[in-house]
């Protein structure tokens, strides 16, 4: 299959729910969108297709690099802007035992 007929999505992946920091969230990812609906295999009943581009996940250091790759390969693409990151407020364990806490101790 020719890559000219396919389209792609370029985005910056969000951090994992298991992460508290911003590690591994600075790269940009290009994934191919499926060209059609998956089909039902009559023998096994499983859903699948012969399309292998949905298995690809290309990682780029910048959005511009991902866009340049898509343009060079003739791939139609759509860029999704990342959500604004909230600032991380540092927490200090000693603040739990301050005498002038703004809220009551909950234990």
Mean pLDDT: 83
Count of DSSP-assigned helices: 1
What is the fold named in CATH at topology level? Double Stranded RNA Binding Domain
Largest sheet: 4 strands, mixed
Please bin the fraction of helical residues: 10-25%
Query: What would you call the shape?
Result: elongated
Report the CATH architecture: 2-Layer Sandwich
Q: Strand-and-helix sequence, N→C?
A: EEEEEHE
Low-confidence stretches: none
Question: What top-tier CATH class fits best?
Answer: Alpha Beta
| Residue fraction in strands | 15-25%
Strand numbers in spatial order across the main sheet: 5-2-1-6
Oligomer: single chain
Q: What Rg do the Cα atoms give?
A: 22 Å
Give the N-to-C terminal Cα separation: 63 Å
Layout of strands and helices, then pairs:
Blueprint: E1 7-11, E2 28-33, E3 39-40, E4 47-48, E5 57-60, H1 63-73, E6 76-79
Parallel strand pairs: 1-6
Antiparallel strand pairs: 1-2, 2-5, 3-4
Could you characterize the architecture of this molecule?
The chain is α+β, with helices and mostly antiparallel strands and 107 residues long. The protein has one domain: 2-Layer Sandwich (Double Stranded RNA Binding Domain), CATH 3.30.160. It is 10% helix and 21% strand. The strands form 2 sheets. A 4-stranded mixed sheet has the order 5-2-1-6, with helices on one face. It has a two-stranded antiparallel sheet with strand order 3-4. It starts with 6 loop residues before the first strand and ends in a 28-residue tail after the last strand. The mean pLDDT is 83.
């Amino acid at each position: 299959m020719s890559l000219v007929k396919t389209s792609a999505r370029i985005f910056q992946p969000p951090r994992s729910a298991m992460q508290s920091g911003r590690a591994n969230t600075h790269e940009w990812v290009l994934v191919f969108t499926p060209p059609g609906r998956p089909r039902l295999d009559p023998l096994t009943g499983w859903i699948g297709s012969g399309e292998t581009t949905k298995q690809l996940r290309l990682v780029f250091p910048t959005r511009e690099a991902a866009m340049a790759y898509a343009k060079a390969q003739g791939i139609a693409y759509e860029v999704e802007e990342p959500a604004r990151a909230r600032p991380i407020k540092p927490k200090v364990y000693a603040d739990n035992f301050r005498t002038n806490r703004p809220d009551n101790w909950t234990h």
